[in-house]
Design a protein that fits this description.
The chain has 271 residues and is an alpha/beta fold. The protein is built from 11 helices and 8 strands. The chain has one domain (2-268): Rossmann fold (3-Layer(aba) Sandwich). The structure holds D-malate. Residues 30-31, 98-99, 194, 221, 247 line the site of D-malate.
Length: 271
Amino acid sequence: MNDLSENSSNEFILSFEDSADRVPVLWLHGFPLNNTMWDLQVAGLSDVARLITPDLRGHGLTEATSVTPYSMELMAGDCIRILDHLGCQGPVVVAGLSMGGYLAFEICRRFPERVAGLILAATKATADTEEVKLNRDNSARIVMSDGVKPVVDGLLPKLLSPKAYEDDPDLVDFLRDMMLLTSPEGIAGAQGAMRDRPDSTPDLPDLNIPTLIIHGDEDQLIPLDEAKAMAAALPEAELVIIPGAGHMPNLEQPMVFNDAVREFLEVFYGE
Ligand code: MLT
């Protein structure tokens, strides 16, 4: 485990993993997961990319902080600290799944000079509706009073395609265990950060960087139309639709997912 706790104004463990010395790709996990959701990408793509996989605040091995709610700005700053620590001063490819994609847009807004390209998986540019915001407040209240389990039980069946949920108990267990590790504060903090995130749609036409969008056509949490809308609005985007995949295409169909990423990285960032 790597640990950034040397800065006295930020005294909490900020954990991440790093891999080989290739085009740097910062992998931002979804909610309420952690960097182990990228294990199959680390295993399958380390020969073409340097994979940097933070645990976001309050998730995985990164400690929760008492600053709640968290914000996309705060988490973007955490990611840039990790890149600085690693000496990655130049632009990197930022890859985000779902909440990780929301965060990727924030990094583009605040640190455009640090972003060479984007991989947007199972995510969207639009902000929350008022109804979703209220649901997030509710979920934050429940997790602080009743613990993580009710939130995990509610979310788990929607993370995968119905078939994967039925047929792949190991994957279901893997995701359940990962989510149960997340602290209540981390879940509540992240719900607040997602609730307050701005609409990134107006930013899309100005994101003149290579972008790969990957989306499963059985995503129950973010409809495929959101990915199509991003692809239409982004100047340099390619959309890869994975038939039969749900909200976790990198885990449900890792070979297809990794092949798409490999081709994207080789075309735009290869030697
Ligand atoms: C995620 O997978 O990161 C979340 O479902 C995103 C969200 O709640 O909007």
